[in-house]
């Protein structure tokens, strides 16, 4: 491989890379539609010219045919008048016009075929442009979505995610610890309150029991200073709450 070929390939590869990098899909799509629209305008102009040329040849053909018929009638008139030379001249003119008409007919047939083909090509181009416009909108939407996704990924990559997540987890742990401390304080406050009420209730029971014992002793003994004998059983002090609970238990046993 020669040096020139190698240099040429390097230059072309660099140019292709530069062009590919500079291409914006949305702009290229818009430009492609503009180019196709321009081609469509040129195609329509070509079809219009071909149709105009076809009509002009059609007019020439009809005129030549009319002239040939006219000279044929004149030849007949000359023969009727006995002028054979004039009739021959008229037939010569008729022949010329007939040949011209035949040539124009051949050209006209070719133009008709060409015009029909141009019309088909025009319809095909219009259909392709319509399809290209639809695809252009779809492709531009996909390009926009791809750009948005690329921007999102770039943003996520540039973010210090690990640091942010670490801070988030620390704050979550701190909130949990604060909630635990608050719950523990609440439980401690409730426990202290319960203990205070338990002490009050316990003290009341003792006082009630002591009063009941004093009343029993004072009511059963003739002498307030006399203590019961050692072998006599001491009646247990009565408690209305205990008696009521005892009666409730008996009732439940009877219902079983």
Automatic annotation (TrEMBL):
Residues 101-149 form a coiled coil. The keyword Coiled coil applies. Keywords: Coiled coil. Residues 228-239 have a biased composition (Low complexity). Residues 215-240 are annotated as: Disordered. Pfam families: PspA_IM30. Belongs to the PspA/Vipp/IM30 family. This is PspA/IM30 family protein. It comes from Leptolyngbya iicbica LK.
């Amino acid at each position: 491989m020669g040096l020139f070929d190698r240099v040429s390939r390097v230059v072309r590869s660099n140019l292709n890379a530069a062009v590919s990098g500079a291409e914006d899909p949305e702009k290229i799509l818009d430009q492609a539609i503009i180019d196709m629209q321009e081609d469509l305008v040129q195609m329509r102009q070509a079809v219009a010219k071909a149709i105009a040329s076809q009509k002009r040849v059609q007019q020439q053909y009809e005129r030549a045919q009319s002239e040939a018929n006219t000279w044929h009638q004149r030849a007949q008139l000359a023969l009727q008048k006995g002028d054979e030379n004039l009739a021959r001249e008229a037939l010569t003119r008729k022949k010329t016009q007939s040949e011209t008409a035949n040539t124009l007919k051949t050209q006209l047939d070719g133009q008709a075929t060409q015009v029909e083909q141009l019309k088909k090509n025009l319809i095909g181009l219009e259909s392709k442009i319509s399809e290209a416009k639809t695809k252009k909108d779809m492709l531009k939407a996909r390009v926009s979505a791809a750009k948005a996704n690329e921007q999102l990924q770039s943003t996520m990559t540039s973010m210090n995610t690990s640091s942010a997540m670490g801070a988030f987890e620390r704050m979550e742990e701190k909130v949990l610890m604060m909630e635990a401390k608050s719950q523990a304080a609440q439980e401690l406050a409730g426990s202290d309150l319960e203990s205070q009420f338990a002490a009050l209730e316990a003290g009341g029971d003792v006082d009630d029991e002591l009063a009941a014992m004093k009343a029993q002793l004072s009511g059963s003994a003739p002498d307030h200073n006399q203590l019961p004998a050692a072998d006599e059983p001491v009646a247990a002090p009565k408690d209305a709450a205990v008696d009521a609970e005892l009666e409730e238990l008996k009732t439940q046993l009877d219902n079983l």
